[in-house]
Amino acid sequence: MELIKNVPCPFCGTLCDDIICKVENNEIVGTMNACRIGHSKFMHHKDATLYKKPMIRKANGELVEVEIDEAIEKAVEILVNAKRPILYGWSSVSCEADEVGVELAEELKALIDNTATVCHGPSLLAVHDTGYPVCTLGEVKNRADVIIYWACNPMHAHPRHMSRHYFSRGYFRERGRPDRTLIVVDPRESDTAKLADIHLQVEPGKDYELLDAIRAAMKGHKILYENVAGVPRDLIYQAVELLKSAQFGNLFFGMGITQTSAKNRNIDAGICAIEELNEYGGKFTLIPMRGHYNVNGFNHVCTWTTGYPFCVDFATGYPRYNPGETGTNDLLQNKEADAMFVIGADPGAHFPQRALQRMVEIPVIAIEPHRTPTTELADIIIPPAQIGISSEGTAYRMDGVCFTMKKIIDSDLLSDKEILKRMLERVKEIHASESKMESVKEVTSPAK
Amino acid sequence: MIKGTGDMMSKIILTPKEQPQVPLEVDTILPDTLAGKTIDEIKSMNILYGNTEVELQEFFDVEGESGEDPSELQIEFNGDVYNTKRIGQGMTTGEIVVKGNASMYVGAKMKGGKITVEGDVAGWAGQNMQGGEIVVMGNAGDYLGSAYRGDWRGMSGGKITVHGNAGREIAEYMLGGKIHIIGNVKMLPGIHMNGGILIIDGNVISRTGGEMKGGTIIVNGRIGEFLPGFEYLGVRKDIDVDGEVMQGLFYKFRGDFATKGADGVVYTATAKNAHIVP
Amino acid sequence: MEYIIKNGMVYDPLNNIDGEKMDICIRDGKIVESVGESAEVVDASGKIVMAGGVEPHTHIAGPKVNVGRMMRPEDSEKDVEAKSGDRRSGSGFSVPSTFMTGYRYTEMGYTTAMEAAMPPLIARHVHEELVDTPILDKGAYPLLGNNWFVMEYLKNGEVEECAAYIAWLMRATKGYAIKVVNPCGTEAWGWGGNVHGINDPAPKFGITGAEMIKGLVEANEMIGLPHSVHLHCNDLGHPGNYETTLASFDIAKNIKASPKYGERDISLYGTHVQFHSYGGTSWRDFESEAPAIADYLNKNDHIAIDVGQITLDETTTMTADGPMEFDLYTLTGFKWANCDVELETGSGVVPFIYSSKNPVHSTQWAIGMELFLLTKDPGKIMMTTDHPNAGPFTRYPRIIAWLMSSKYRNDLIENELHAWAQKRSSIATIDREYSLYDIAQVTRATAARVLGLSETKGHLGVGADADVAIYSFNPETQDASSDYMTIEAVFRMADHVFKDGEIVVKNGELVKPRIDGRTYWVNCHFNEELEKNVISDVKKKFKQYYTVNFENYEIGDGYMRRSAPIEIK
CB within 10 Å: which end of chain B, N or C, has fewer? Predict the structure, then answer.
């Protein structure tokens, strides 16, 4: 048995990089240090169906195994003929694959978008309006005396996050947990909330009101109402005093606040609150609790290649951007989309009903190793080698620190990047021959 | 001067054929660009269909007569163009009439002239508008009279009137001009507003004037829930709004003190709003 | 492939060639003595020929640059380019996307650009973006002025240990030069504070900016790096900061430059010095002290600077000077991004609008111009805008035109700028005009020499890389002083550009958008025994204080398409 050390975990945005994989006969037979979710990603599931070959759905609905070239040819044909294709997903593949994806979208005049569209997309919209005062996770570990978890439950969603960054000792916090004050804002008595020194049990969907009150109180204004969002005014004053006296505070926030009621305006107000807290002598930063291990990586790749983090529309040949118009769900729900390519995501499991209805109506191509609700809707399925397990690539942690994901075992399958490259080359060939045809036509057609 | 629909005007009538599922974009079709062109030239002007450029005549029958002077030119979309975006985007003069619904960005970046939509408009009508007038006889979508993503300089001039209801985050980052909604409005009207006037005759669900720093919002209907970062200043009678007197009794609030140096004003009719007074 | 560029007027300060009509021969990517009959002829009669431009200080890749893009869709939306053939699309006026960055530098005749601030922990990200920045040769400077290891070594007087650590770090991050930003100030920003001047110690670490600068300059020369310490002084943007600037420069005065590669003769590089040449005590009595800085440059040979010229645009500021960006955020009320990086550095990003109507901005413009025009030897000064801080790099052609035409400057001063430009600086009294030779110096030659790259960059002598720019301007018939608009136009879009002996811009059109440039980095070897000890100490601290394992920190060779290591032994 071989032990492979310092493996970054390809599951959540915490990207723990201290996993040890036990490998026997080109199979991962065990892990050390990983949480349960991470462990199950590395291990082969008995219940899960792993695809071994590409498949195409026949007219009778049956999936038939085909060779990779045929699957790619068919996928390309669908995308080249579409007038409003979507390339969606990108959060569980490498940055190198994302880069090819952006070029494919550009070549196809398609729309490219990642899973942020259904998780931290509203955070990105808030970043556009208010900024992004962040730090890396080590700053929290080494300096933080006040930590806020707002609408997230890392005890379950990011299982090793708190032990690595909150309970752990840091350079200026030699005792770890006893040196820190924990504030949790959550309507639920979550397992994270149970650890809190102060739990602000906000009414569901009233985060914006609570933040509005906190920010007014910070500046010395009286809060207009005695009770805001289910929290007594005096408790808000008390929490504000604690925040203002922090040496180093950090806000972690999750989808409980990004996807409820005021959505991007919750985050907008939250970001402003953190920015303003820097005016009282201490330091304050925030970190969004990102889900997929490389959701952040796609946002970065998409930004440096196009100028925008997600929801990029290439219909005009140059990148255009306006979530609400150019998001995957917008296109599906408005029935604009006429073909959809999915990679490194499972919209079949996570999208609203109206979007799924459109997915049923249009051709769907899935680059996906497992059987998922998305592959149930797909007309073409191409299984790739998995990043961080059977192929290499770069991924960005929730705080922007990046890692080279390891290849632990060999696979017969092509990597995501290879599949995309082949598709891109094929699309370029088709476009080149089309433009040749065009120019021939122009030459031979009689003058008007 | 905004000119009326008098006989003096020349008129181009664009009658939509079937609206496709993949949307059209017609920001090329403005009085500014049509003036001086023949009907045949107009027919072959390019519009965007999904990711492909097509000629206008593929989706519209074109008739009427153009003129040399764009300010004397009216474009009529003679039917429902619910899946046609960017009508009147960037127009500086003349008139556009839509005899049905229109999709997103009606009159975005508009500098002058007048647009009338007899049906509904989708999101971002009047985005970053600088001047001119938009009248919507039906309902308006989200982000009416707002700013482009990330821009803190929103609608700076002109007037928008919506006879029906409007969506979320209208008048976002508004700097100047006037928006008047005769119906009801969803949450967050006047978010980050810095100037200008927003009048809502109907009801607002919640978060009126969130993070506003300046400008004036008047709500004649009922505000479902109000924000705690405002200061209550008492009852005012017959308020003066930009030289016009609005009669009646109003509660006056100032804020939103969540933001530094806030000096925005919200008036709400007293009749239905006793519940938001502390 | 062989080329001969015929009959151009060549400006090549490193070889003392000032407008001589001569032919440039190119073979296999290099400038050579002569070429065969079959060489392709590029006719440059009546045109200017210079080496490819060398950018010593720009922000084009990495986490804060990308956050600048991510935070500002309104900046991206106003400047877009569609895909065209092999040329990729892009967007961004003040922070262009990576492909657009590569194309636009190339179109201006620049062929080398150095990313001036790389957080070591996030080096992968910087290199990933550099790989996507086509055509240009490039490198990146790891940030070390607030690094905990460096602070501890230097506090303990362990300069050699510090040098060993830096040697390892250059290899681990594929770095090119030591970058120091607001030494100790960014660490203080970890607690929401800042330091003031060079003698104010970092909280808890107890070391001062002056001690950091001195120790790092010593370590730099001990290792023998090609470039000097690259210093962004303390107190950036504060009225009265010129004293800090001069005191910082003076620290390196008696330390001898000892590069083991290249022809550098300076021991310190001061960057965007326009932001560091301020007099007065507040924004009310703010005034230029550029003459004092220029005077220092005129009297001392151990230092060279780049200017950071204000271009009077709406732009995006970004720097590892975290506390400065926070001040800018409180000043403007605009959106603000920040990223503090554990044990190493920090950064901030804020949009900014420089307006010709604003008294301070007008004076800042004048201060930059004074630095250019009062520094006698253009071998000590380089043209930058600290892109995008003082303005986007795409404004270089305008700065060239300002430098070459006192009429252009005076029109601006008289008709557009706030009166402070005249009252608070001496700019209105200066009638010096740069020659094309001077321009070649401040845009190519000086940078290549101080970066240690002048063997192959910044000149057109035999053996140089065949990076050549041809501009359609005839100095024999055209006068830059009066025809400044033409100067601006020709330097925006070169007539021809060669990169490594290939034509990438032909008749004013970018024809090869897909070629990759080199990544320069320093393959340092310094006292390997000592380095072993140092690294074992570093490893222990890694476990305790970093959130990344030591083994995942080094980035490996996979993040460069054309690795160009400079061996230092």
Answer: N
The percent of residues in chain C predicted with pLDDT above 70, rounded, is 100
Chain C residues inside the 8 Å CB shell of B151 = 74
Chains interfacing with B (3 or more CB pairs < 8 Å): A, C
pLDDT of residue B236: 97
Neighbour tally for C157: CB within 10 Å: 11
- The residues, any chain, with a CB within 8 Å of residue C411's CB and separated by 6 or more, are none
Q: Which two tokens stand for residue A61?
A: 């609905």
Any idea where the domains of chain B sit in the sequence? 139-276
C335 touches chain B (CB under 8 A): yes
**Min distance B6 CA to chain A CA atoms (Å):** 36
pTM: 0.97
Res B4 pLDDT > 50: no
- The domain locations on chain A are 49-117+293-439, 121-288
Give C337 to chain A, closest Cα distance, Å.
4
Residues of chain C positioned with their CB less than 8 A from the CB of A105 = none
Contact present, B43 and B5 (Cβ < 8 Å):
no
Distance between CA atoms of residues A162 and A149, nearest Å: 10
Contact yes or no for B148 and C73 at CB 8 A: yes
Question: Taking CB atoms and an 8 Å limit, are C548 and A132 in contact across chains?
Answer: no
- SS3 for B146? coil
* CB pair distance less than 8 Å for A402 and C124: yes
Q: What is the ipTM metric for this complex?
A: 0.97
Q: How many contiguous H segments (helices) and E segments (strands) does chain B have?
A: 2, 19
Residues of chain A with pLDDT under 70: 440-448
**Mean per-residue pLDDT for C393-413?**
98
- For residue C275 the two structure tokens come to 């932001």
Neighbour count for residue C462 (Cβ, 10 Å): 12
Chain B residues within an 8 Å CB radius of C77:
148-149
Partner residues linked to A60 by β-bridges: none
CATH among 3.50.50.60, 3.40.228.10, 1.10.230.10, 3.20.20.10 for A121-288: 3.40.228.10
The fold of A49-117+293-439 is Rossmann fold (3.40.50)
Closest by Cβ to A216, choosing from B123, B150, B257: B257
Tens of pLDDT along C265-290? Answer: 999 999 999 999 999 999 999 999 99
Whether B172 has a pLDDT exceeding 70, the answer reads yes
Report pLDDT digits (tens) over C433-476. Answer: 999 999 999 999 999 999 999 999 999 999 999 999 999 999 99
Return the pLDDT at A444. Answer: 55
| Residue-range domain boundaries for chain C | 2-50+458-510
B53, B151, B192: best mutation site toward chain C, by most C Cβ within 10 Å?
B151
DSSP notation for A239-293: HHHHHHT-SEEEEEE-HHHHSSTTTHHHHHHHHHHHHHHGGGSSEEEEEE---BT
Are C202 and C193 spatial neighbours (Cβ–Cβ below 8 Å)? no
Question: In the predicted model, is pLDDT for residue B162 greater than 90?
Answer: yes
For A165, the token pair is 């960054």
A414: CB partners within 8 A, 6+ apart: A68, A384, A385, A422
Q: What architecture is domain C2-50+458-510? A: Roll (2.30)
Answer for the pair B98, B33: CB distance below 8 angstroms, yes or no: no
Residues on B contacting C at a C-beta cutoff of 8 Å? 147-152, 260
Q: CA angle, B182 as apex, B176 and B188 as ends, to 5°?
A: 60
Pairwise CB contact (< 8 Å): B152 & C75: no
Return the H-helix or E-strand segment holding A75: helix A68-81
Instruction: Quote the pLDDT of residue A51.
Output: 94
Identify the pLDDT of residue C393.
98
pLDDT digit string, tens, across residues A383-425: 999 999 999 999 999 999 999 999 999 999 999 999 999 999 9
